[in-house]
Write a structure and sequence with these properties.
alpha/beta, 10 helices, globular
Protein backbone atom coordinates (compact mmCIF):
# COMPACT_ATOMS: atom_id res chain seq x y z
CA UNK A 1 0.00 0.00 0.00
CA UNK A 2 1.21 3.52 -0.83
CA UNK A 3 2.13 5.08 2.52
CA UNK A 4 1.50 8.52 1.05
CA UNK A 5 -2.17 7.67 0.45
CA UNK A 6 -4.27 6.96 3.54
CA UNK A 7 -7.88 5.73 3.66
CA UNK A 8 -10.74 7.15 5.70
CA UNK A 9 -13.19 4.34 6.44
CA UNK A 10 -16.66 4.12 7.92
CA UNK A 11 -16.10 3.58 11.66
CA UNK A 12 -17.64 0.78 13.68
CA UNK A 13 -19.23 2.34 16.76
CA UNK A 14 -20.63 -0.39 18.95
CA UNK A 15 -20.92 -4.09 18.37
CA UNK A 16 -24.18 -3.97 16.45
CA UNK A 17 -23.25 -1.28 13.92
CA UNK A 18 -22.90 -2.69 10.39
CA UNK A 19 -23.21 0.49 8.30
CA UNK A 20 -23.49 4.25 8.61
CA UNK A 21 -24.74 7.24 6.66
CA UNK A 22 -22.60 10.27 5.84
CA UNK A 23 -24.69 13.06 7.37
CA UNK A 24 -22.34 15.81 6.25
CA UNK A 25 -18.72 16.53 5.39
CA UNK A 26 -17.11 19.11 7.69
CA UNK A 27 -13.92 19.43 5.64
CA UNK A 28 -13.88 20.29 1.92
CA UNK A 29 -12.42 18.08 -0.73
CA UNK A 30 -8.96 19.47 -1.48
CA UNK A 31 -8.61 21.03 1.95
CA UNK A 32 -5.78 20.35 4.36
CA UNK A 33 -6.74 18.47 7.52
CA UNK A 34 -4.88 17.74 10.75
CA UNK A 35 -4.96 14.67 13.01
CA UNK A 36 -7.86 14.98 15.44
CA UNK A 37 -9.78 17.42 13.24
CA UNK A 38 -13.51 16.75 12.88
CA UNK A 39 -14.02 15.90 9.21
CA UNK A 40 -17.37 14.15 8.78
CA UNK A 41 -20.63 13.54 10.62
CA UNK A 42 -21.74 9.91 10.62
CA UNK A 43 -25.33 8.91 11.33
CA UNK A 44 -25.90 5.46 12.83
CA UNK A 45 -29.17 3.77 13.71
CA UNK A 46 -28.72 5.14 17.24
CA UNK A 47 -27.23 8.62 17.01
CA UNK A 48 -25.13 10.99 14.90
CA UNK A 49 -21.49 11.46 15.84
CA UNK A 50 -18.43 13.17 14.39
CA UNK A 51 -15.47 11.25 12.98
CA UNK A 52 -12.06 12.78 13.59
CA UNK A 53 -9.14 12.48 11.18
CA UNK A 54 -6.64 9.86 12.25
CA UNK A 55 -3.94 11.33 9.98
CA UNK A 56 -3.04 14.68 8.49
CA UNK A 57 -2.74 15.65 4.85
CA UNK A 58 -4.99 16.77 2.02
CA UNK A 59 -8.54 15.42 1.78
CA UNK A 60 -8.03 14.43 -1.84
CA UNK A 61 -11.18 12.52 -2.59
CA UNK A 62 -14.61 12.17 -0.97
CA UNK A 63 -15.77 8.73 -2.04
CA UNK A 64 -19.10 8.60 -0.19
CA UNK A 65 -21.12 11.82 -0.54
CA UNK A 66 -23.50 13.34 1.98
CA UNK A 67 -26.63 11.23 2.34
CA UNK A 68 -25.04 8.00 1.12
CA UNK A 69 -24.45 4.86 3.15
CA UNK A 70 -21.38 2.68 3.51
CA UNK A 71 -20.61 -0.52 5.43
CA UNK A 72 -18.40 -0.31 8.49
CA UNK A 73 -14.82 -0.49 7.28
CA UNK A 74 -15.77 0.73 3.81
CA UNK A 75 -13.76 3.47 2.10
CA UNK A 76 -15.46 6.87 2.40
CA UNK A 77 -12.56 9.24 1.58
CA UNK A 78 -8.86 9.42 0.76
CA UNK A 79 -6.17 11.55 2.43
CA UNK A 80 -2.76 11.95 0.83
CA UNK A 81 0.34 14.07 0.61
CA UNK A 82 -0.21 17.15 -1.52
CA UNK A 83 2.10 16.08 -4.34
CA UNK A 84 0.53 12.69 -5.06
CA UNK A 85 -0.75 12.79 -8.68
CA UNK A 86 -4.49 12.61 -9.34
CA UNK A 87 -4.17 9.42 -11.38
CA UNK A 88 -2.64 7.64 -8.37
CA UNK A 89 -5.61 8.74 -6.26
CA UNK A 90 -7.98 7.47 -8.95
CA UNK A 91 -6.26 4.07 -9.05
CA UNK A 92 -6.27 3.83 -5.25
CA UNK A 93 -10.00 4.58 -5.02
CA UNK A 94 -10.85 2.12 -7.78
CA UNK A 95 -8.79 -0.60 -6.13
CA UNK A 96 -10.11 -0.08 -2.60
CA UNK A 97 -13.65 1.30 -2.77
CA UNK A 98 -15.22 -2.17 -2.70
CA UNK A 99 -13.06 -3.40 0.19
CA UNK A 100 -14.21 -3.64 3.80
CA UNK A 101 -11.39 -3.37 6.33
CA UNK A 102 -11.28 -3.60 10.08
CA UNK A 103 -12.55 -0.03 10.51
CA UNK A 104 -9.72 0.96 12.80
CA UNK A 105 -10.12 -1.95 15.21
CA UNK A 106 -6.80 -3.42 16.29
CA UNK A 107 -8.10 -6.49 18.05
CA UNK A 108 -10.89 -9.02 18.05
CA UNK A 109 -14.50 -8.06 18.62
CA UNK A 110 -16.94 -10.39 20.32
CA UNK A 111 -20.70 -10.16 19.90
CA UNK A 112 -22.54 -9.59 23.18
CA UNK A 113 -22.96 -12.77 25.19
CA UNK A 114 -24.53 -13.88 28.45
CA UNK A 115 -22.67 -14.91 31.59
CA UNK A 116 -24.03 -16.47 34.77
CA UNK A 117 -23.45 -14.20 37.76
CA UNK A 118 -24.86 -16.11 40.72
CA UNK A 119 -28.59 -16.41 40.05
CA UNK A 120 -28.46 -13.68 37.38
CA UNK A 121 -27.69 -13.66 33.67
CA UNK A 122 -25.65 -10.62 32.65
CA UNK A 123 -25.21 -9.56 29.02
CA UNK A 124 -21.79 -8.15 28.18
CA UNK A 125 -19.50 -7.60 25.24
CA UNK A 126 -15.75 -7.30 24.90
CA UNK A 127 -13.57 -5.52 22.39
CA UNK A 128 -9.79 -5.35 22.16
CA UNK A 129 -6.91 -6.83 24.11
CA UNK A 130 -4.79 -5.58 26.99
CA UNK A 131 -5.42 -4.38 30.55
CA UNK A 132 -9.16 -4.67 31.21
CA UNK A 133 -11.49 -1.67 31.25
CA UNK A 134 -15.08 -2.10 32.47
CA UNK A 135 -17.79 0.39 31.41
CA UNK A 136 -20.98 0.69 33.47
CA UNK A 137 -24.05 2.49 32.07
CA UNK A 138 -26.64 4.57 33.92
CA UNK A 139 -30.33 4.27 34.83
CA UNK A 140 -32.37 2.97 31.90
CA UNK A 141 -29.29 2.47 29.72
CA UNK A 142 -27.43 -0.52 28.32
CA UNK A 143 -24.01 -1.46 27.04
CA UNK A 144 -24.93 0.29 23.77
CA UNK A 145 -24.54 3.69 25.46
CA UNK A 146 -20.74 3.16 25.17
CA UNK A 147 -20.80 2.71 21.38
CA UNK A 148 -18.51 5.72 20.80
CA UNK A 149 -16.12 4.85 23.62
CA UNK A 150 -15.53 1.11 23.54
CA UNK A 151 -13.86 0.94 20.08
CA UNK A 152 -11.49 3.83 20.83
CA UNK A 153 -10.44 2.44 24.20
CA UNK A 154 -10.03 -1.02 22.68
CA UNK A 155 -7.02 0.15 20.71
CA UNK A 156 -4.96 -0.53 23.86
CA UNK A 157 -7.28 -2.34 26.25
CA UNK A 158 -9.70 -5.22 26.58
CA UNK A 159 -12.89 -3.23 27.05
CA UNK A 160 -15.94 -4.79 28.69
CA UNK A 161 -19.38 -3.19 28.60
CA UNK A 162 -22.32 -4.81 30.37
CA UNK A 163 -26.03 -4.48 30.98
CA UNK A 164 -26.71 -3.98 34.67
CA UNK A 165 -29.43 -6.14 36.26
CA UNK A 166 -32.85 -4.83 35.27
CA UNK A 167 -31.46 -3.30 32.07
CA UNK A 168 -30.92 -4.27 28.46
CA UNK A 169 -31.00 -8.04 28.07
CA UNK A 170 -29.70 -8.92 31.54
CA UNK A 171 -31.91 -10.57 34.16
CA UNK A 172 -34.60 -8.28 35.47
CA UNK A 173 -34.12 -9.23 39.12
CA UNK A 174 -32.59 -6.22 40.91
CA UNK A 175 -32.76 -7.27 44.57
CA UNK A 176 -32.85 -4.18 46.78
CA UNK A 177 -32.38 -2.01 43.67
CA UNK A 178 -30.06 0.38 45.50
CA UNK A 179 -26.49 1.47 44.78
CA UNK A 180 -24.81 -1.11 47.07
CA UNK A 181 -26.70 -3.93 45.36
CA UNK A 182 -25.43 -2.79 41.96
CA UNK A 183 -21.91 -2.49 43.37
CA UNK A 184 -22.22 -6.09 44.53
CA UNK A 185 -23.50 -7.16 41.10
CA UNK A 186 -20.44 -5.54 39.51
CA UNK A 187 -18.14 -7.41 41.86
CA UNK A 188 -19.81 -10.69 41.01
CA UNK A 189 -19.50 -9.89 37.31
CA UNK A 190 -15.75 -9.32 37.71
CA UNK A 191 -15.46 -12.67 39.47
CA UNK A 192 -17.52 -14.51 36.84
CA UNK A 193 -15.50 -12.95 34.00
CA UNK A 194 -12.19 -13.72 35.79
CA UNK A 195 -11.23 -10.04 35.92
CA UNK A 196 -8.87 -9.36 38.81
CA UNK A 197 -8.02 -5.64 38.70
CA UNK A 198 -9.71 -3.33 36.22
CA UNK A 199 -9.93 0.26 35.09
CA UNK A 200 -13.51 1.13 35.97
CA UNK A 201 -15.69 3.83 34.40
CA UNK A 202 -19.30 4.41 35.37
CA UNK A 203 -21.96 6.80 34.14
CA UNK A 204 -24.76 8.21 36.31
CA UNK A 205 -26.18 5.35 38.43
CA UNK A 206 -23.36 3.22 37.05
CA UNK A 207 -20.89 5.77 38.42
CA UNK A 208 -22.28 5.47 41.94
CA UNK A 209 -22.23 1.68 41.59
CA UNK A 210 -18.60 1.73 40.42
CA UNK A 211 -17.70 4.05 43.30
CA UNK A 212 -19.35 1.69 45.80
CA UNK A 213 -17.31 -1.20 44.41
CA UNK A 214 -14.07 0.80 44.55
CA UNK A 215 -14.70 1.80 48.16
CA UNK A 216 -15.56 -1.70 49.35
CA UNK A 217 -13.02 -3.59 47.23
CA UNK A 218 -10.24 -1.15 46.31
CA UNK A 219 -7.88 -3.95 45.34
CA UNK A 220 -10.06 -4.74 42.34
CA UNK A 221 -9.92 -1.25 40.81
CA UNK A 222 -6.81 0.19 39.11
CA UNK A 223 -8.42 3.52 38.21
CA UNK A 224 -11.88 5.01 38.60
CA UNK A 225 -13.68 7.42 36.26
CA UNK A 226 -17.05 8.83 37.32
CA UNK A 227 -19.05 10.34 34.44
CA UNK A 228 -22.04 12.53 35.33
CA UNK A 229 -22.13 10.33 38.37
CA UNK A 230 -24.81 9.73 40.93
CA UNK A 231 -23.70 9.49 44.54
CA UNK A 232 -22.00 12.90 44.74
CA UNK A 233 -25.00 15.07 45.64
CA UNK A 234 -28.68 14.81 46.50
CA UNK A 235 -30.24 16.42 43.40
CA UNK A 236 -31.64 14.26 40.61
CA UNK A 237 -34.13 15.15 37.89
CA UNK A 238 -37.06 13.01 38.99
CA UNK A 239 -39.15 14.27 36.08
CA UNK A 240 -36.70 12.42 33.85
CA UNK A 241 -36.76 9.28 35.99
CA UNK A 242 -40.57 9.18 36.17
CA UNK A 243 -40.96 10.10 32.51
CA UNK A 244 -38.55 7.38 31.39
CA UNK A 245 -40.42 4.72 33.37
CA UNK A 246 -43.85 5.87 32.19
CA UNK A 247 -43.11 6.35 28.47
CA UNK A 248 -44.41 3.58 26.25
CA UNK A 249 -44.64 5.35 22.89
CA UNK A 250 -42.19 7.28 20.76
CA UNK A 251 -43.88 10.65 21.20
CA UNK A 252 -43.71 10.19 24.98
CA UNK A 253 -40.11 8.96 25.08
CA UNK A 254 -38.63 11.49 22.65
CA UNK A 255 -38.81 14.58 24.94
CA UNK A 256 -37.61 12.49 27.88
CA UNK A 257 -34.46 11.39 26.07
CA UNK A 258 -33.83 14.88 24.75
CA UNK A 259 -33.20 15.97 28.35
CA UNK A 260 -30.06 13.83 28.29
CA UNK A 261 -28.32 15.93 25.64
CA UNK A 262 -27.21 19.51 25.23
CA UNK A 263 -27.95 19.09 21.52
CA UNK A 264 -31.48 17.66 21.50
CA UNK A 265 -31.31 16.98 17.76
CA UNK A 266 -29.03 14.02 18.50
CA UNK A 267 -32.05 12.03 19.68
CA UNK A 268 -33.45 10.30 16.63
CA UNK A 269 -36.28 7.90 15.96
CA UNK A 270 -34.03 4.83 15.90
CA UNK A 271 -32.55 5.65 19.31
CA UNK A 272 -36.03 6.02 20.79
CA UNK A 273 -37.26 2.77 19.24
CA UNK A 274 -34.20 0.87 20.48
CA UNK A 275 -34.80 1.98 24.06
CA UNK A 276 -38.52 1.25 23.84
CA UNK A 277 -37.75 -2.29 22.63
CA UNK A 278 -35.73 -2.91 25.78
CA UNK A 279 -38.43 -1.35 27.93
CA UNK A 280 -41.07 -3.72 26.52
CA UNK A 281 -39.24 -6.80 27.82
CA UNK A 282 -40.95 -8.64 30.65
CA UNK A 283 -39.98 -7.34 34.08
CA UNK A 284 -38.39 -4.07 32.98
CA UNK A 285 -41.06 -1.73 34.37
CA UNK A 286 -41.05 -3.44 37.76
CA UNK A 287 -37.24 -3.38 37.85
CA UNK A 288 -37.02 0.33 36.99
CA UNK A 289 -39.67 1.20 39.58
CA UNK A 290 -37.78 -0.78 42.22
CA UNK A 291 -34.52 1.01 41.37
CA UNK A 292 -36.17 4.44 41.41
CA UNK A 293 -37.81 3.71 44.75
CA UNK A 294 -34.55 2.56 46.33
CA UNK A 295 -31.87 4.73 44.74
CA UNK A 296 -33.95 7.91 44.43
CA UNK A 297 -36.27 7.59 47.42
CA UNK A 298 -38.23 10.72 48.19
CA UNK A 299 -37.24 12.35 44.92
CA UNK A 300 -33.55 12.66 45.67
CA UNK A 301 -30.46 10.46 45.70
CA UNK A 302 -30.51 8.15 48.68
CA UNK A 303 -26.78 7.41 49.04
CA UNK A 304 -24.12 10.14 48.96
CA UNK A 305 -20.51 8.94 48.82
CA UNK A 306 -18.60 12.15 48.02
CA UNK A 307 -16.90 12.41 51.42
CA UNK A 308 -15.52 8.91 51.06
CA UNK A 309 -13.68 9.80 47.84
CA UNK A 310 -10.74 10.89 49.99
CA UNK A 311 -10.38 7.26 51.17
CA UNK A 312 -9.52 6.02 47.68
CA UNK A 313 -5.88 5.47 46.75
CA UNK A 314 -6.25 4.61 43.08
CA UNK A 315 -6.33 7.45 40.48
CA UNK A 316 -9.82 8.96 40.37
CA UNK A 317 -11.39 11.47 38.00
CA UNK A 318 -14.80 13.03 37.58
CA UNK A 319 -16.12 14.00 34.13
CA UNK A 320 -19.25 16.08 33.63
CA UNK A 321 -21.18 17.88 30.92
CA UNK A 322 -21.68 21.47 31.93
CA UNK A 323 -25.24 21.44 30.56
CA UNK A 324 -26.26 18.29 32.47
CA UNK A 325 -29.98 18.53 33.33
CA UNK A 326 -30.24 15.16 35.08
CA UNK A 327 -27.45 15.33 37.65
CA UNK A 328 -26.13 18.90 38.00
CA UNK A 329 -22.49 19.60 37.21
CA UNK A 330 -22.13 21.48 40.49
CA UNK A 331 -21.83 18.06 42.14
CA UNK A 332 -18.27 18.09 40.76
CA UNK A 333 -17.40 21.11 42.89
CA UNK A 334 -15.61 20.90 46.22
CA UNK A 335 -14.35 17.34 45.81
CA UNK A 336 -11.09 16.21 47.44
CA UNK A 337 -7.97 17.58 45.77
CA UNK A 338 -6.91 14.04 44.88
CA UNK A 339 -9.82 13.81 42.42
CA UNK A 340 -9.23 15.28 38.96
CA UNK A 341 -12.30 17.19 37.75
CA UNK A 342 -13.17 17.80 34.09
CA UNK A 343 -16.32 19.75 33.17
CA UNK A 344 -16.87 19.84 29.41
CA UNK A 345 -18.77 22.59 27.62
CA UNK A 346 -21.44 21.80 25.05
CA UNK A 347 -22.50 18.52 26.63
CA UNK A 348 -25.32 17.29 28.81
CA UNK A 349 -25.78 14.14 30.86
CA UNK A 350 -24.58 11.89 28.01
CA UNK A 351 -21.23 13.66 27.88
CA UNK A 352 -19.47 10.42 26.89
CA UNK A 353 -21.55 10.42 23.68
CA UNK A 354 -21.65 14.15 22.90
CA UNK A 355 -17.94 14.66 23.64
CA UNK A 356 -16.74 11.13 22.98
CA UNK A 357 -13.24 12.02 21.78
CA UNK A 358 -12.51 14.20 24.81
CA UNK A 359 -13.89 11.63 27.23
CA UNK A 360 -11.99 8.79 25.54
CA UNK A 361 -8.76 10.77 25.85
CA UNK A 362 -9.40 11.37 29.56
CA UNK A 363 -10.19 7.72 30.20
CA UNK A 364 -7.08 6.56 28.36
CA UNK A 365 -4.86 9.09 30.13
CA UNK A 366 -6.04 8.05 33.58
CA UNK A 367 -5.49 4.39 32.76
CA UNK A 368 -1.95 5.22 31.63
CA UNK A 369 -1.23 6.92 34.95
CA UNK A 370 -2.53 4.05 37.05
CA UNK A 371 0.05 1.70 38.60
Amino acid sequence: MNARIRPVVMPKWGMTMTEGTVAGWLAPEGGTIAPGQEIVEIETTKITNVLEAAVGGVLRRIVVPTGARAPTGGLIAVVSDADVPDDEIDRYVEAHKSEVVEAGETARADAPRMIAVGDLEIRYGTLGEGPPVVLVHGFGGSLESWMFNQPALAERNAVYALDLPGHGESSKTVGAGDVPSFGDALLRFLDAASLDRVHLAGHSLGGASALALALDHPGRVRSLSLIGSAGLGFEIDMDYIRGFIAATRRKEMMPVLQRLFADESLVGRDMVESILRHKRLDGVEAALNAIAGAAFAGGRQALILRERLRDLRMPVQVIWGRADRIVPARHAEGLPSSVAVHVLDGAGHMVHMEKASAVNALLAALADRAP
